[in-house]
């Protein structure tokens, strides 16, 4: 059995690295990158959560048929 | 200086050739792009070093690297996702000469890992050479093309090193910490099994883009046996691979910082001091609204940027 808490922590770590590199890539100055990071991180996490929710709904609706 | 001399000097320093052609030629045959651009010495040197490295790698590995691929994965384009694809000429030669082996199991040479790594490094170094060819064809000898290629090369060796050398130390350290830490976490989760190219051919290809860290780790722990069930091995493999792929973003960032800084230099020298190292684009981020002041007020700057494709 995979521990859901550990799974969530690993997802947050992966999100942190992906968003941080994305911000470094899109923002030229470090200050702008730091400012943009929290919002983008939350957007990424909530977007992934929404996507997971949709996938779960699809799984429960269609996979059982 | 007479007008004739000035014209001659100007034509010597002007950009030559098409950047796309230069990059494609370098991709197909390391050094060919530089020969096309009239950089004979660099072209011949690059040809000898990169193809020599690939050839040595083939000799040490007996061309058996792609025999690590599972039989069901072997196809014409299966090897296109390996770092060797950076040196297309070498890869085609390898596929023509060795392909996926003789069709039956046989022992691997003792130095197969070293040979495999050499071929992969040759491909990755050729990416930096392509960067240099691209930059040379855009700026000619008017501006040194080496800093932009060096930034890419250093970042491809150690994440963040190119940024550090550019003076962006906080960003460089941040990138190094994040990417190497991500790779290390993935390695621990996969219990070092991600380091073996033989075991995870494609994941290895992704994490190889992190440069020297996975290669050294493979040399030390690559042959470690897996002794039990690894519940997070998929996460570990993904983390290592994604860390390498994210380093491509870091390389592009390092290149763009150097290239845009050079393109904006005439504007800065002439007193358009509001242009930062990112040139006129800096004005957008600092004031919140894009302005073309840097380019419009300085004909030299506009002329410089007009050379970009």
Plain-language structure description:
The complex is a heterodimer of chains A (65) and B (309). In chain A, 86% of the residues lie in helices and 0% in strands. Chain A starts with a helix and ends with a helix. Chain A is elongated, with a radius of gyration of 16 Å. By secondary structure, chain A is mostly helical. With 309 residues, chain B is an all-alpha fold. Chain B has two domains: 16-142, no CATH class; 148-264, no CATH class. Helix content of chain B is 63%, strand content 0%. The two termini of chain B are 31 Å apart. Chain A binds chain B through residues 2, 6, 10, 13-14, 16-18, 20-22, 24-25, 27-30, 32-33, and chain B through 168, 170-171, 174-175, 178-179, 181-182, 185, 189, 231-232, 235, 238-239, 242-243, 246, 249-250, 252-253, 257, 276, 278, 281-282, 285-286.
Summarize the structure.
With 65 residues, chain A is mainly α. In chain A, 86% of the residues lie in helices and 0% in strands. The model of chain B is unreliable at 267-309 (pLDDT under 50).
Descriptive labels:
heterodimer, A: mainly alpha, 2 helices, B: 309 residues, 16 helices, 0% strand
Largest sheet of chain B: none
Mean of pLDDT of chain B? 81
Determine the structural class of chain B based on helices, strands and strand pairing: mainly alpha
Shape designation of chain B? flat
Number of continuous helical runs of chain B:
16
User: Which band does the percent of strand residues of chain B land in?
Assistant: under 5%
Topology:
The complex is a heterodimer of chains A (65) and B (309).
Chain A lengths: L3 H23 L3 H33 L3
Helix pairs in contact in A: 1-2
Chain B lengths: L2 H11 L5 H10 L3 H5 L3 H22 L26 H10 L14 H28 L6 H12 L3 H5 L3 H21 L11 H7 L4 H10 L11 H31 L1 H5 L11 H7 L5 H4 L2 H7 L4
Helix pairs in contact in B: 2-6, 4-6, 6-7, 7-12, 9-12, 10-12
């Amino acid at each position: 059995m995979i521990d859901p808490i550990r799974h969530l922590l690993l997802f947050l770590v992966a999100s942190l690295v992906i968003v941080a590199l994305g911000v470094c890539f899109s923002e030229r100055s470090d200050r702008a990158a730091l400012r943009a990071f929290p919002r983008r991180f939350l957007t990424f996490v909530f977007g992934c959560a929404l996507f997971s929710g949709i996938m779960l709904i699809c799984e429960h609706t269609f996979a059982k048929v | 200086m007479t007008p004739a001399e000035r014209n001659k000097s100007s034509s010597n320093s002007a950009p030559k050739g098409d950047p796309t052609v230069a990059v494609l030629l370098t991709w197909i045959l390391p050094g060919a792009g530089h020969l096309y651009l009239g950089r004979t010495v660099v072209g011949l040197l690059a040809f000898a070093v990169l193809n020599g490295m690939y050839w040595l790698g083939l000799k040490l590995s007996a061309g058996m690297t792609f025999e690590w691929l599972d039989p069901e994965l072997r196809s014409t384009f299966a090897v296109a996702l390996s770092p060797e694809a950076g040196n297309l000429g070498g890869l085609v030669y390898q596929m023509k000469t060795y392909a996926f082996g003789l069709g039956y199991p046989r022992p691997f040479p003792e130095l197969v890992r070293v040979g495999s790594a050499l071929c992969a490094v040759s491909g990755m170094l050729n990416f930096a050479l392509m960067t240099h060819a691209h930059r040379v064809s855009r700026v000619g000898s008017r501006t040194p093309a080496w800093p932009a290629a060096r930034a890419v090369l250093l970042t491809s060796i150690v994440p963040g090193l190119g940024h550090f050398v550019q003076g962006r130390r906080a960003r460089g350290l941040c990138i190094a910490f994040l990417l190497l830490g991500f790779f290390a976490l993935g390695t621990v989760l996969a219990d070092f099994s991600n380091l073996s190219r033989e075991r995870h051919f494609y994941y290895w290809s992704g994490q190889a883009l992190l440069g020297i860290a996975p290669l050294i780790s493979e040399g030390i722990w690559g042959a470690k046996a897996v002794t039990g069930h690894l519940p997070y091995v998929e996460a570990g493999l993904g983390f290592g691979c994604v860390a390498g792929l994210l380093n491509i973003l870091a390389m592009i960032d390092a290149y763009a910082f150097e290239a845009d800084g050079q393109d904006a230099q005439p504007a800065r020298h002439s007193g358009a001091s509001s242009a930062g190292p990112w040139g006129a684009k800096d004005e957008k981020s600092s004031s919140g609204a894009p302005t073309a002041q840097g380019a419009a007020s300085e004909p030299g700057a506009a002329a410089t940027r007009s050379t970009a494709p």
